[in-house]
Amino acid sequence: MVKRGEVRLEDPVSKFLPEAVVVPEKDGRQITLLDLATQTSGLPPMPDNFSPADPTNPFADYTVVQMYEFLSGYSLTRGVGQQYEYSNFGMGLLGHALALVAEEDYETLVRTRICGPLEMGSTAITLSPNLKNRLATGHNPGLKPVPNWDIPTLAGAGALRSTVDDMLQFVAANLGLVESKLSPVMQETHASRHQTGMPDTEIGLAWHVLKKHGSEIVWHNGGTGGYHSFTGFDRKKRLGVVVLSNASTDIDDIGRHILEPKLPLARLEPPRI
User: Full-prediction pTM beyond 0.85?
Assistant: First the structure.
């Protein structure tokens, strides 16, 4: 969207929201799209008016009105752009704002701009009957089945469902292994833009960048009720990996270890069933 001239990274997110919404500022500094994409907006991980009626599907009843109410009433506790803190709320807000600019819902925006060109036909939020039949049942750490989450308002924070094949197609485009007009734009998202405070880890545009043992791994993970995912790649080695699990246990170490064998696998005890 930046390359198309629809938005600029330096644009304040308030520019794209209804006039009645008051986005918090600090010391005269507004929250920009870049701040949201680099997790340095100063917004908290989750809003304090998040109170799900159903804990097994916690995001389902969180509304756009509630999101706007939280923004308009929140006071930042630190300067904008100063410090990394991962905010699912901030990433959901970014997805919401971009969808407003495009004048279509977030799912349509992603499927039109990314999934379509990359032939990622099994990546969606709203599942067709075929995709529902193929959906793996999610499990908690004790390996007991749990319900799926619905994330309507903060869709940008993790509502998409996908497959290993589709995500490998996405990784291949990021590595330039497949011919795509998206690949040059993707390269710009990999560049480190801010420290995270985590060892050897910086952040680009949403992607994290791990620099260790001579490797530079660009990665992101995700987790919802019953599921965990890891996607990463090493541009120098031209190697990528996708790990998807239908249990909510952490599997990041598997992906990192495949990309850089010196990064150890975690020592885990078998789950108690």
Answer: yes
